[in-house]
């Protein structure tokens, strides 16, 4: 298929662009296969807007006489309006945008066409390999091994080719366990707490069914992670009733009789359409400037978004607490083990592991716990808050995770190497990107699409020094401690950087942020100068001394 | 003195507590815990003491403070508890001004310092700064002996054309004699903010002098013919007042006025609103939705928004339309003070400086008779007179500082400190209800002024991001008052609940870094001077030095290692970088764990109690 077929009117003049808190600009609109490009005609300070079609979440058109207006709502929550003279042009453009922003085939997406303008210093596709992770692990313990049982994606289609499992469990046992777990997602190592040797495992639900099926190998696997005489905790992200109902569909949970060394805790985390609805409601509330205070607060409440944040943070703290305080190993799962499970395991690591609070470490965490662990990004992030499609697999699971990180970041603003912009950038790229990183639903699909060969990795771009400097937190001081966030409602805040980003003038806040950075940078300069001057003075004094001695 | 008293954590569900000794002094209640940490509570700060039913561990005593601190003690013996309870009741309720802390507080200032302290804020000087007296406005001596209005200051500014009979006549037509006077004069626009109380218009009464008075105000503005009259009350309230012979201006009787209601609720609504807010925020194990719906039903943020909206309306009338505005509510000392002072703050950058903010409070709140004594319950009085009107003003200012982080010279700590002292009765400024009362109490001789003490500690209250050029002199600050901009002021209402705050404070870090930068700049000057001096001794070195300036790095390599010793330790921010309370038990998810670890109670390792990072 040629994109040209979809573009009926490639160009329109005298188009007026409206954005909130900006003056309207007149200019020319061009459509290409992947971009909507608007450029103002003014030569002086020519303004250009490049919008990826894949960033467009929904499009509305309306007419007043022959003047057409298109309202474009983006996945990054921005809303722009284009006034296009001429009914036909407007209709053509609207339908082209609609078609181009909802392409079915992944291979038509921009990452397959994008050619970077920068030199690749480090190929992001091979920056974060599980083998490296395992090497680090082997330096502190030899209780684990790297298994290639899933090399062909045949044991578990949503797992990566290599996984880390207890050393005492062989590949044959893993194959048996895979049959006992939903989608073949047998328990694998998610995090190893060096301080006390406790492990966090993740998996999907066990397939006990109604007749209480058991799997000796599964029991052996999870028990292999326990110290003798110690207990472990299973954190099930479903409420007990849901877990019980799951048995009727062949699912289930670990029963005490078969897992006597494990205590099960049900900590409910909301999922799928409930989250998506919550997201939509929150964005609606934030976009309406006319709400009076009561209405705003009740809309904010009704969205339930902050409740989800609190629940998720609480669950992550609970998992972290079991490991760090109770000195117990933890197994986390829900049903499929691809959503709430990953939220919990990755947030617990942010709390426990200082490495995950560095830029590189956070990237590794996302690769390990989200991309390789098989979070179905393509399904979950297909649409954002404005779409009417309402597919049941769409859900802001990853955004919710990023916001939780932001909440912890706000409470420990000096403990993270990256800044808020880094999190916002990840949100944007998860939904629409020129890079292939977030395409596909798991490593299996990515391998089939040959993404590493055909597309550029987000990490290749982000980790260039020029880009990195934008994402660094000037206040960062490495903090080797476990950081326990407060989950009191008074301590949680709306993530304004995402939800109010386009809804309020932010100039003063940005300037203040610049000033903060300036103060920190200036401090470093001054310290360097003072040190240099001191040395010089001392040297002069020493020289004087020599002269006198002579 | 009572020993073995337990101080419970307010929000902990696991009944975490500190054991220590409770002392009662003449002015304070003091608790020293086993690790020698002290908690001081001023008796005047105590809003309520409550004895709860006896429990197995002792007799619980809950103390609520006006600065929103809540402490929960458990006293082992009921008798002791009862004694403390009675003593606190007595000590926290004062019948006479002379018994307040300010009259016994002795900060070791000599008399001339005391006098100078009181002279620090000079309102006559402030009116001169605004540009009055001038061709249109003059100082009136009508109230020199508090004869016309007891609750106004002696010195009042009125239009030149308002003669004494007009003043007297107008004052008789206004509630409590509070006739229209100047509050703020905008030099560039030649427009004025005036304030007064409601007219005694009833259903049909009118007063020619009052009408002349308003005309005089509007004529004192050469750039605009019409003026606004802002009634800050909800229309319904104002109408109800007519039945009592009061009410609002009839537009037909006054020429060229534009009348406007702005709908700020009265002191009683505000009092119960705050009470609801505190109930909600004080709930243990609060869910997000209960918090948000409680926040909504308390109406608190709605009221804050209403106050700020009114101030924006007023400031725009002045700055955009160059129209003078007369503001009133019922008596003109609560809502009127809020709106006039906030509008002035938006209009004039002087009030966004530390000194200017003191002046603003002295002018619009203290001198114009905001009833601090009644509103803050300084003396044991009518509980229906208590209202957080001034707190709302501070909160509105805080909201502005959040929107304009670089526009204010002062920081949040300054607002909190002022709030603390409005209730502490430690300084004379806020005692009493009006200037006349203050003079009678001889406060200037017997007590001290707060402002010099705040100025002396200025560094603590400075905003490191402040940019004096942020908004040149008289450019209007235009806040966005869309609802989502108003946030719950955690640092005010949970100031003492440490587990709720960020464990690392960007603000403190920036503040101390900025402080250190100043010190480093000094050091550099000093070092440069020393080097110059040395170089003066030998010209040869001078050349060398210039060479080195360009390449400081090689010098570093050459320098012997012993130089390290000469560098004094950097006054780096140990305190600032302290991560405290990194402790699961502080945070509310602990309750979940207690479910499954009942057998072995969670041990809090000291390692995480306080963790320090060194730089």
TrEMBL record, chain A:
Cellular location(s)? Cell projection, Ruffle membrane; Cytoplasm, Perinuclear region; Endoplasmic reticulum
- UniProt keyword annotation of Nucleotide-binding present: no
| Xref: Pfam families | Myotub-related (PF06602), PH-GRAM_MTMR6-like (PF21098)
Taxonomic superkingdom: Eukaryota
Name of the protein this chain belongs to: Myotubularin-related protein 9
GO cellular component annotations, sorted alphabetically? cytosol; endoplasmic reticulum; perinuclear region of cytoplasm; ruffle membrane
Keywords, A to Z, come to:
Acetylation, Cell membrane, Cell projection, Coiled coil, Cytoplasm, Endoplasmic reticulum, Membrane
Species this chain originates from: Sylvia borin
The entry assigns this protein to a family as follows: Belongs to the protein-tyrosine phosphatase family. Non-receptor class myotubularin subfamily.
UniProtKB/TrEMBL annotation, chain B:
Please give the coiled-coil regions recorded for this protein. Answer: 510-537
Biological process (GO), any one: phosphatidylinositol dephosphorylation
Residues engaged in binding substrate = 266-267, 329-335
Name the domain of life.
Answer: Eukaryota
Domain called Myotubularin phosphatase: residue spans: 117-493
The alphabetized UniProt keywords are:
Coiled coil, Hydrolase, Lipid metabolism
Q: Where is the active site?
A: 329 (phosphocysteine intermediate)
Q: Which InterPro entries match?
A: Myotubularin, Myotubularin-like_Pase_dom, PH-GRAM_MTMR6-9, PH-like_dom_sf, Prot-tyrosine_phosphatase-like, Tyr_Pase_AS, Tyr_Pase_cat
Q: Which Gene Ontology MF annotations are present?
A: phosphatidylinositol-3,5-bisphosphate phosphatase activity; phosphatidylinositol-3-phosphate phosphatase activity
Q: Give me the Gene Ontology terms describing cellular component.
A: cytoplasm; nuclear envelope
Q: Which PANTHER family match?
A: MYOTUBULARIN-RELATED (PTHR10807), MYOTUBULARIN-RELATED PROTEIN 6 (PTHR10807:SF34)
Q: Which family does it belong to?
A: Belongs to the protein-tyrosine phosphatase family. Non-receptor class myotubularin subfamily.
Q: What is the protein's name according to its record?
A: MTMR6 protein
Show the taxonomic lineage.
Eukaryota, Metazoa, Chordata, Craniata, Vertebrata
């Amino acid at each position: 298929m040629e994109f040209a077929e979809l573009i009926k009117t490639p160009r329109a003049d005298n188009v007026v662009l409206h954005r909130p808190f900006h003056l309207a600009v007149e200019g020319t609109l061009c459509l290409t296969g992947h971009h909507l490009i608007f450029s103002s005609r003014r030569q002086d300070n020519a303004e250009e807007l490049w919008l990826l079609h894949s960033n467009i979440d929904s499009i509305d058109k309306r007419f007043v006489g022959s003047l057409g207006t298109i309202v474009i709502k983006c996945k990054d929550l921005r809303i722009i309006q284009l006034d296009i003279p001429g009914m036909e042009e407007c209709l053509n453009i609207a339908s082209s945008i609609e078609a181009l922003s909802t392409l079915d085939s992944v291979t038509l997406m921009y990452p397959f066409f994008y050619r970077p303008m920068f030199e690749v210093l480090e190929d992001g596709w091979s920056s974060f390999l599980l083998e490296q992770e395992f090497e680090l692990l082997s330096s502190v313990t030899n209780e684990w091994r790297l298994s290639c049982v899933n090399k062909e994606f045949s044991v578990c289609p949503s797992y990566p080719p290599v996984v880390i499992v207890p050393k005492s469990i062989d590949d044959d046992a893993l194959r048996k366990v895979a049959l006992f777990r939903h989608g073949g997602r047998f328990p694998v190592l998610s995090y190893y707490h060096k301080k006390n040797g406790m492990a966090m495992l993740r998996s999907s639900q066990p397939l006990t069914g109604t007749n209480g099926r058991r799997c000796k190998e599964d029991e052996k696997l999870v028990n292999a992670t326990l110290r003798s005489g110690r207990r472990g905790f299973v954190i099930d992200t479903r409420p007990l009733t849901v877990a019980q109902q799951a048995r009727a569909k062949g699912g289930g949970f670990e029963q005490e009789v078969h897992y006597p060394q494990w205590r099960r805790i049900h900590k409910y985390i909301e999922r799928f359409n409930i989250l998506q609805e919550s997201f939509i409601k929150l964005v609606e509330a934030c976009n309406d400037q006319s709400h009076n205070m009561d209405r705003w607060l009740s809309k904010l409440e009704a969205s339930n978004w902050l409740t989800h944040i609190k629940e998720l943070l609480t669950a992550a703290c609970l998992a972290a607490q079991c490991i760090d305080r109770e000195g117990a190993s933890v197994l986390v799962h829900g049903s499929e083990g691809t959503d709430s499970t990953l939220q919990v395991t990755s947030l617990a690591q942010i709390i426990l592991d200082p490495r995950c609070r560095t830029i590189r470490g956070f990237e590794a965490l996302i690769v390990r716990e989200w991309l390789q662990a098989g979070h179905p990004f393509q399904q979950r992030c297909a649409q954002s808050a404005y779409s009417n499609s309402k597919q049941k697999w769409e859900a802001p699971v990853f955004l919710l995770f990023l916001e939780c990180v932001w909440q912890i970041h706000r409470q420990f603003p000096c403990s993270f190497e990256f800044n808020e912009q880094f999190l916002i950038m990840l949100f944007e790229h998860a939904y629409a990107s020129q890079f292939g990183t977030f395409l596909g639903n798991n490593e299996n699909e990515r391998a089939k699409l040959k993404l590493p060969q055909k597309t550029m990795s987000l990490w290749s771009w982000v980790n260039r020094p020029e880009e990195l400097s934008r994402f660094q937190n000037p206040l960062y001081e490495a903090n080797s401690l476990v950081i326990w966030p407060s989950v009191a409602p008074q301590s949680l805040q709306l993530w304004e950087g995402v939800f109010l980003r386009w809804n309020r003038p932010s100039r003063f806040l940005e300037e203040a942020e610049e000033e903060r950075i300036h103060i920190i940078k200036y401090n470093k300069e001054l310290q360097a100068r003072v040190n240099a001057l001191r040395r010089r003075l001392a040297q002069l004094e020493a020289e004087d001394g020599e002269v006198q001695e002579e | 003195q009572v020993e073995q008293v337990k101080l419970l954590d307010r929000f902990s569900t696991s009944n975490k507590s500190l054991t220590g000794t409770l002392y009662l002094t003449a002015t304070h209640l003091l608790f020293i815990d086993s690790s020698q940490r002290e908690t001081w509570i001023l008796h005047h700060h105590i809003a309520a003491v409550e004895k709860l039913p006896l429990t197995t561990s002792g007799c619980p005593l809950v103390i609520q403070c006006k600065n929103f601190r809540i402490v929960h003690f458990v006293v082992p013996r009921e008798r002791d508890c009862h004694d403390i309870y009675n003593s606190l009741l007595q000590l926290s309720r004062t019948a006479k001004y002379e018994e307040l802390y300010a009259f016994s507080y002795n900060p070791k200032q000599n008399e001339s310092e005391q006098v100078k302290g009181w002279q620090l804020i000079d309102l006559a000087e402030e009116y001169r700064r605004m540009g009055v007296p001038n061709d249109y406005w003059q100082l009136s001596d009508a109230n020199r002996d508090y004869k016309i209005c007891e609750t106004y200051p002696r010195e009042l500014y009125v239009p030149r054309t308002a003669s004494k009979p007009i003043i007297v006549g107008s004052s008789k037509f206004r509630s409590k004699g509070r006739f229209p006077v100047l509050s703020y004069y905008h030099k560039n626009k030649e427009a004025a903010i005036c304030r007064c109380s409601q007219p005694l218009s009833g259903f049909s009464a009118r007063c020619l002098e009052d009408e002349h008075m308003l005309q005089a105000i509007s004529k004192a503005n050469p750039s605009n013919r019409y003026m606004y009259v802002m009634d800050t009350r909800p229309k319904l309230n104002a109408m109800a007042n007519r039945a009592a012979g009061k009410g609002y201006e009839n537009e037909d009787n006054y020429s060229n006025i534009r009348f406007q209601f702005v709908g700020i609720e009265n002191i009683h609504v505000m009092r119960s609103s705050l009470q609801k807010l505190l109930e909600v925020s004080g709930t243990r194990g609060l869910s997000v939705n209960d918090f948000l719906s409680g926040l909504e039903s308390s109406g608190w943020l709605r009221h804050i928004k209403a106050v700020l909206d009114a101030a924006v309306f007023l400031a725009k009338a002045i700055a955009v339309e160059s129209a003078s505005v007369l503001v009133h509510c019922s008596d003109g000392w609560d809502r009127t003070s809020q709106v006039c002072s906030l509008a002035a703050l938006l209009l004039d950058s002087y009030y966004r400086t530390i000194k200017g903010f003191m002046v603003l409070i002295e002018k619009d709140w203290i001198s114009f008779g905001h009833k601090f004594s009644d509103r803050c319950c300084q003396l044991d009085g009518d509980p229906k007179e208590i209202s957080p009107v001034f707190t709302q003003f501070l909160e509105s200012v805080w909201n502005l500082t959040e929107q304009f982080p670089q526009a204010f010279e002062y920081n949040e700590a300054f607002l909190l400190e002022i709030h603390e002292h409005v209730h502490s009765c430690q300084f004379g400024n806020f005692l009493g209800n009006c200037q006349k009362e203050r003079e009678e109490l001889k406060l200037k001789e017997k007590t001290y002024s707060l402002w010099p003490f705040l100025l002396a500690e200025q560094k603590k209250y400075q905003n490191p991001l402040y940019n004096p050029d942020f908004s040149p002199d008289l450019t209007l600050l235009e806040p966005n008052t869309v609802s989502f901009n108003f946030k719950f002021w955690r640092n005010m209402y949970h100031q003492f609940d440490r587990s709720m705050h960020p464990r690392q404070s960007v603000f403190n870090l920036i503040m101390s870094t900025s402080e250190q930068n100043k010190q480093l700049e000094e050091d550099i000057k000093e070092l440069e001077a020393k080097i110059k001096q040395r170089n003066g001794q030998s010209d040869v070195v001078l050349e060398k030095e210039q060479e080195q300036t360009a390449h400081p790095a090689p010098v570093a390599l050459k320098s012997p290692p012993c130089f390290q010793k000469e560098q004094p330790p950097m006054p780096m921010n140990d305190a600032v970088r302290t991560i405290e309370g990194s402790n699961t038990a502080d945070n509310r998810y602990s309750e979940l764990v207690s479910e499954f670890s009942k057998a072995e109670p969670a041990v809090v390792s000291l390692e995480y109690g306080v963790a320090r990072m060194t730089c």
